[in-house]
């Protein structure tokens, strides 16, 4: 039986979305929807990473970004991921909390959450659209090697495309399986 009215039992990643619901890692909206094809914003990724870490107490100052004010929604979680080096900002001092997070950056967040394990990426990319010189190459290859991401059926990763909520549910489930 579907938990969300916009996710049927036959939906792609339905079991991973159900797992996220049961664990509380990725939640739906009060209207009973999950919105599986909506992009995940960077502030929401901060919240999810805080949850997967067990929601440890947040101490100390808030984030150090010019576009995140103290008391702003998710400011504490943004400060928490920043302090742990899980999710960084840009060279202009911004975090861009409402910007969608890209698939390559999502791999980097999960790699860092795993403790940035020693890993040597392959010389030849496992994805048709990712070059070994590309930003987050190691992190994308690590995530692929651990089964956290499989990329698309056409052999691409689409690294700079924003990641949707259903895919984040799959990443979360697979991350838990790979590192739990």
From TrEMBL:
SLH domain residues: 1-60, 61-124, 125-180
Organism superkingdom: Bacteria
Record-linked PROSITE patterns: SLH
Record Pfam families: SLH (PF00395)
Database matches in InterPro entries: Cell_Envelope_Struct_Comp, SLH_dom
Alphabetized PANTHER family for the sequence: OUTER MEMBRANE PROTEIN ALPHA-RELATED, S-LAYER PROTEIN _ PEPTIDOGLYCAN ENDO-BETA-N-ACETYLGLUCOSAMINIDASE
Protein name per the record: S-layer homology domain-containing protein
């Amino acid at each position: 039986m579907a938990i969300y009215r916009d996710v049927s039992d036959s939906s792609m990643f339905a079991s991973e979305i159900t797992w996220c619901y049961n664990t509380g890692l990725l939640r739906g909206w009060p209207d009973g929807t999950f919105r599986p094809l909506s992009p995940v914003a960077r502030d929401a990724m901060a919240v999810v990473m805080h949850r997967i870490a067990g929601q440890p107490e947040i101490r100390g100052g808030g984030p150090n970004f010019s576009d995140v004010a103290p008391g702003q929604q998710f400011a504490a979680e943004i400060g928490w991921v920043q302090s742990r080096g899980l999710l960084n900002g840009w060279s202009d001092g911004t975090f861009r909390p409402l910007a969608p997070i890209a698939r390559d950056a999502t791999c980097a967040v999960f790699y860092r959450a795993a403790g940035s394990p020693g890993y040597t990426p392959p010389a030849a990319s496992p994805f048709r659209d990712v070059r070994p010189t590309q930003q987050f190459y190691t992190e994308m290859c690590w995530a692929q090697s651990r089964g956290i991401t499989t990329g698309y059926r056409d052999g691409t990763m689409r690294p700079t495309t924003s990641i949707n909520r259903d895919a984040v549910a799959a990443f979360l489930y697979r991350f838990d399986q790979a590192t739990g």
